[in-house]
Amino acid sequence: MADSPPYAITPAILARIEEIGEAIGRAEATGVIRDLRLRQINRIRTIRGSLAIEGNTLSEEQISTILDGKPVAGPLRDLQEARNAIAAYDRYTRWDPANEDDLLAAHAILMAGLLRSPGRYRSGPIAVMGQGEVDHIGPPARRVPRLMGDLLAWVGATDEHPLVTSSVFHCEFEFVHPFEDGNGRLGRLWQTLILTRWKALFAGIPVESLVHARQSDYYAAIRQSSEAGESTPFIEFMLAVILAALRSASSSDQVSDQVSDQVARLLASLNTGPKAAIALMAELQLSHRPSFRKNYLHPAMASGFVEMTRPDSPRARNQKYRLTPRGRDALLRIAGSA
């Protein structure tokens, strides 16, 4: 048995695993995961969410157009990242989550045309920036092969719950930061791979989209785990995201179930065009920003109805929010059922 990375199973983690089990049962019972149209929508949301975390500016509509094989105007790097991600998510279920060759092959696909040597571990130091300062300095490059070998060996040998295994891998992978670039999107892809090997329905659950909606919390959980020297805070965060993704998917064929009155009001407000948070709050007659984010903005983004106009700079002063094609569709359905 390979040495286990440091983490603790807390009562909160155990409770969340039980809730996720129940949510999986409901998702399987609804049959939504067998709906090809919804699986395609969720695939687009998955790819767009993971790329947007890294600053990619393409919308769901643009990624959908690329999937259809049609030309799209946009920054060349963003377009290349999208094509690479589509190729990786097309074949990721063929990979073994404990196989190093598969991990390197996945990185080569994700970063093709973006790095000089995709599919190879970094050869120099690396620092992770956040809010204009260094958040984390990765281990020396000479230690990367050994650290990754140990981590993958643990993934292949552990009898830990896959929900925990996938989250621990994701957190430890980001700590090692084994590649020059592309670590975030590969870490998220590999967690989805581990989950899909456990339950096939995760191939159609847009976990990455909800991570994007909670991007600041995602980075905070990684930072907390790094400071604590164990993955526990990150496990708790990711299990909450996975649960939210499952609940969203299990009701995605019922707009009335999925869209709260608050989210419906937000969508209606955005129907006239992109708006800043302060403008939305004024229009909705709200004064408490945390309540606005919790009850209106975060659920709308988590469901893929709303997106940032500047996903590369989540806290930009000129940040605005706009409807996605999925959001416009939801708004039409709400109007039709009124």
Topology:
Elements (H helix, E strand, L loop, with lengths): L10 H20 L5 H18 L6 H8 L8 H16 L8 H11 L16 E4 L2 E5 L6 H14 L4 H15 L6 H16 L8 H7 L1 H14 L3 H19 L4 H4 L2 H10 L6 H7 L5 H14 L3 E3 L12 E3 L1 H13 L1
Antiparallel strand pairs: 1-2, 3-4
Helix pairs in contact: 1-11, 2-3, 2-4, 2-9, 5-8, 6-7, 7-8, 7-11, 9-11, 9-15, 10-11, 13-15
Notable traits:
single chain, 338 residues, mainly alpha, Fic-like fold, Arc Repressor Mutant, subunit A, two-stranded antiparallel ribbon, 4% strand
Brief overview, please?
This protein is mainly alpha-helical.
Provide structural commentary:
The protein has helices at 11-30, 36-53, 60-67, 76-91, 100-110, 144-157, 162-176, 183-198, 207-213, 215-228, 232-250, 255-258, 261-270, 277-283, 289-302, 325-337, and strands spanning 127-130, 133-137, 306-308, 321-323. The protein has 338 residues and is mainly alpha-helical. The protein has two domains: 11-250, Orthogonal Bundle (Fic-like fold), CATH 1.10.3290.10; 255-337, Winged helix-like DNA-binding domain superfamily/Winged helix DNA-binding domain (Arc Repressor Mutant, subunit A), CATH 1.10.10.10. The chain has a two-stranded antiparallel ribbon with strand order 1-2. A hairpin with a 2-residue loop joins strand 1 (127-130) and strand 2 (133-137). Helix 1 runs parallel beside helix 11, helix 7 (162-176) crosses helix 11 (232-250) and helix 10 (215-228) packs antiparallel against helix 11 (232-250). The longest helix has 20 residues, at 11-30. The radius of gyration is 20 Å and the shape is globular. The model is unreliable at 253-257 (pLDDT under 50).
